[in-house]
Structure to design on (162 residues):
């Protein structure tokens, strides 16, 4: 009888600890996704690695270790998402964009069509060209020219201070 009660207490303790409320940190939750967790946004399975959410619109985030599931619940479930392709088509850039960097991570050209942003997720967008570095002390460095190429689009989808 005591063994059954002890077993029951252990099982209840394990299951009660398996669901945990966590902070919304896009990069850390993306790492969970890469480690086999499924990510749900308002009960819909999503690819968080290529989806950038507006952190101001996050109500709660729950991590369930036993089912390897993260549930993200938004305040406004009807916000619009814009694809990176649509964003590139909206903006008229007067140069070729050789690189796209989002949150300091270079995006492979094969993933451009999969990337999307929730309205309000983009905090800053900037096109860097060779002209931005002319006249600077490092404008003659070949690696700067190689990295920037004709143009590098830099998108920050997180606040600099969180």
């Amino acid at each position: 009888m005591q063994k059954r009660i002890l077993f029951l207490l252990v099982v209840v303790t394990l299951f009660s600890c398996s669901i945990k409320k966590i902070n919304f940190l896009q990069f850390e939750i993306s790492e969970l996704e890469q480690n086999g967790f499924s990510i749900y946004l308002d009960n819909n399975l999503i690819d968080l690695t290529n989806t950038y959410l507006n952190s101001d619109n996050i109500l709660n985030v729950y991590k369930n270790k036993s089912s390897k599931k993260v549930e993200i619940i938004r305040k406004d479930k009807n916000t619009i998402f814009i694809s990176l392709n649509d964003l590139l088509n909206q903006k008229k850039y007067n140069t070729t964009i050789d690189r796209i960097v989002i949150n300091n991570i270079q995006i492979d050209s094969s993933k451009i069509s999969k990337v999307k942003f929730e309205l309000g997720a983009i905090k800053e967008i900037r096109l860097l060209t060779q002209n931005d570095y002319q006249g600077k002390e490092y404008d003659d460095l070949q690696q700067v020219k190689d990295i920037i190429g004709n143009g590098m689009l830099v998108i920050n989808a997180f606040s600099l201070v969180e």
The longest helix spans residues 2-18. The chain has a mean pLDDT of 83.
